[in-house]
Amino acid sequence: MEKLIFEISSPGRKGYSLPNLDVPDADIKSFIPQEYLRKDEPDLPEVSELDCVRHFTRLSQLNYSIDTNFYPLGSCTMKYNPKINEKMAGLPQFTGLHPYQPDTSVQGMLEVLYETEQALCKICGMDAFTLQPAAGAHGELTGMLIVRAYHTSKGNPRKKVVIPDSAHGTNPASAALCGYEVVTVRSDKAGRIDLEALKSVMSDEVAVLMLTNPNTLGLFEKNVKEIADIVHKAGALLYLDGANLNALLGVARPGDMGFDVCHVNLHKTFSTPHGGGGPGSGPVGVKAILADFLPIPRIKQKRSKFLFDYDAKRSIGRVRAFYGNTGVIIRAYCYMKLLGSDGLKDATFEAVLNANYLKTKLKNDYRLAVADEPCMHEFVLTGKDKKELGVKTLDIAKRLLDYGFYAPTVYFPLIVEEAIMIEPTETESKETLDAFAETMIKIAAEAKSNASLLTGAPHITPVRRLDEVLAARELNLRWKRPGA
Ligand SMILES: *Cc1c(COP(=O)(O)O)cnc(C)c1O
Fold it and tell me: Mutation test of ligand 1: which of 265, 272, 319, 425 has the most ligand atoms closer than 8 Å to its C-beta?
């Protein structure tokens, strides 16, 4: 176990060597007003440079990362992020820009933003995009504000947002944040939105239906055209939570399915290492009828010049300072350029193939959450039968850590008891998928023969099973010197 740097500290040890001060100490102190001078030394660790480097290098090696291992994390699209994207986003010509520079001196950056918007319009079948939102959830809020502005412009903002029971928790949160009442619509036995249930909740009070397609069970909503008709007939709009766009790239376009507004998660579908809270990017695309409501500024091209346009009377205003997380946007731009339209389509086909391959490998040892039909880019298992052996889905997830795998998404979607949600992505090799499947099968056998191996897991990780309730209730991350 790695000690804290305070615990390896030794009084007087230094991590630097500097020449002696060649001006009197008192001189320096006289520059700073008395009240700002500290009275005592700060309580900092005292270690040599080498010990400091080794300590932090060892800590970094405790990290799990996409560069070291597989993340079968459902709904998160944890794919390989080409290193060239990192290099491009790190170019000083980008990182050295200041957001207050005049448009004329940042033409290259504006061109990248403009072209990214255009490419997303093409991929999604939308008429206009904004790159401002900082993540998917922020995109949802932006989308809801646009929906509200649209209905308000027609005389009534309406009251309700309809959301399927399989949706991600950010959907109802975004709708509620925008002042809407959330109405849940149930899924049918097969795991898709129930059309009769949808019809029964639609009325002229409904502002929008927020749909995820493919949905969080990894199933394509085959009735999407019919759903769009039902929604539009009630004068409502259709919103796509585009977090699962990795199953559609180059194959099907939300705009063609009848969606009026959507967000995409650049950090998921279009590469960028993510997790741990960001940074992300959640651009929002709309059909022409909603374009006037997009956040300002918009990027426009006039003759061969790019500029920020603030002239939009019906805009919902800004949703973020400046113009979004440009570092993530540059990565997405490079990713799209690198793959091209054929490459993006291949990514989708391979993501779907990999998911189906894993699902087939696991379905004899684990129960599928829904009937066995081909899935899109992800699939969901249920640990219901394992529960009868005294093993919870959480125990299976923890046991995977012992074998060097990141745990899949668990207990989501909420409609599946003991859910285990797996998304391999297109970037994993057959060997990796096989190794993961073999491990999952081994764990299923352990559940039968020696359940305590699972309920006591993880056994070999740097920290064992944490008290998650205590961690959530007492969020105290500050170290205090014993006795202090
Ligand atoms: C990830 C995700 C979101 C939220 O996106 P963030 O970028 O994490 O804010 C919404 N819906 C689904 C289905 C997701 O997987």
Answer: 265
Cβ–ligand 1 distance for 185 under 6 Å, the answer no
Rounded to whole angstroms, the Cα distance separating 124 from 159 reads 28
**Is the Cβ atom of 378 under 6 angstroms away from ligand 1?**
no
- Candidates 193, 189, 199; CA nearest to 213 is 193
Residue 135 in contact with ligand 1 by CB distance below 6 A: yes
Distance 80 CA to ligand 1 centre (A): 18
CA distances for 371 relative to 192, 368, 432, angstroms: 11, 7, 26
CA of 48 to the centre of ligand 1 (A): 43
In this structure, the strands spanning 160-164 and 206-212 are parallel
Q: Which of 48, 137, 84, 35 is nearest to 335 (CA)?
A: 84
SS3 category, 223: coil
Q: Where does the pLDDT of residue 27 fall: very low under 50, low under 70, confident under 90, or very high at 90 and above? A: confident
**Per-residue pLDDT tens for 143-165?**
999 999 999 999 999 999 999 99
Domains of the chain, with CATH numbers? 5-62 (no CATH), 83-338 (3.40.640.10), 348-472 (3.90.1150.10)
Compute, in angstroms, the gap from residue 286 CA to the centroid of ligand 1. 18
> What's the rounded Cα separation, in Å, for the pair 177 and 434?
43
Tell me the C-alpha to C-alpha distance, in Å, between residue 307 and each of 89, 99, 201, 431, 475.
21, 13, 44, 48, 45
Cα separation, 311 vs 430, in Å, equals 52
Amino acid at 395: D
Q: Closest Cα to atom 2, ligand 1: which residue?
A: 243
Min mean pLDDT across 22-26, 52-56, 252-256, 404-408 is at 22-26
Per DSSP, the residues of 426-448 read: TTS-HHHHHHHHHHHHHHHHHHH
What is the reported pLDDT for 28?
A: 75
- Nearest protein CA to atom 14 of ligand 1, as residue: 243
pTM of model > 0.90: yes
CB burial of residue 186 (10 Å; 0-12, 13-18, 19+): middle
